[in-house]
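Reopening closed ticket. The problem is back. First fold of the pair:
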Amino acid sequence: MVIPARLVDSLPERLWAPGNLIVPRWGDRVIGHWHFCVGSGHAGGVRTIERNGRVLGRGRRTFSFSAHRDG
């Protein structure tokens, strides 16, 4: 992994909101598609960071879907 688990776990919870895909730009150039997702896709899953479909980091703390539902 490129990004250490402790760094993944220290990032703000809001990055893992459902459907969160970040497409940063450098001027007119796209510098990758960053996806902040929950690895197992269900309650109790750990948070992951992916760039262009490749997992760069995986946290150790589980993600609480109930605490982050819309509405």
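Second fold of the pair, where the issue appears:
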Amino acid sequence: MARKMTFFQKPLGATLLLGSALGTPYILFETEPGEQIRRAVAFEATSLEMTPPEITQPGNAPPVNAPPERLMLESLQNPVLPPSVRRSGLDPLAPASDFQPPIDLREVLRFDIDPDFVYRRFARVSTVLSDLSLDGLRVPLVSGTQAYDVAGSLTYYFDINKTLRRIQMQGVTGDARGLIELMVQHYRLHAEPSLGGQLLTTRWNNRVTSFMHVAPAPVVTSASPNARFAFYLEINPPADRYGLSQEAMQMLVQAQAAKRW
């Protein structure tokens, strides 16, 4: 009889490891995948190389006179680069160096990105095994040292045509309000009633296509004020045939079964 693979022996399981250099446990809905992620954080965190750039606060929300799914798709495909990037003259396609330039989340959370952008924009890129139809590229992500900044990992998933089909981001922050505001205003996620933190989703034909969960860290100490909250984000284009990843679906199903939302 074949031996059953554990979560981390599966190629897809590795994509959920939290890239947090702050070493704070990450737990999502207290599900089995979330618990396994929490145990693996300490190992994954040691592999990240980070520098502390500044973060640019979220800008104004896009127009609201269109359906939510259209607004989200347009904002992802036609992003407005943040002022910090325009003022600095930073070319997003310029070769990366050992020093990681400041990262505005609106610059890197968009669907007009290709693999070449990832390799040029980030100093360190790791290949990730996804499902059989997508290839993954993971990068360490640090937006700064303020409480509202984020630290973690960002993973892009491309199809055979090198078209971006999925974005996952997971990490920690000291103040989640800015991140939540960005997701609501710029990416059109909506808050759902839930336990164990805050859940935001985007739906297409009443089916969840993107979501973010933010939860208080199990233990908060004065030594790590910028790691008071852990978050998991997965964004997929509306009406895309790929939809949520297997892990994301499992998290939501288990959370719903446990009446967490």
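Update: turned out to be a display glitch only; the data is intact. The chain has one domain: 13-48+67-80+91-257. The longest strand covers residues 164-173. Please close again.
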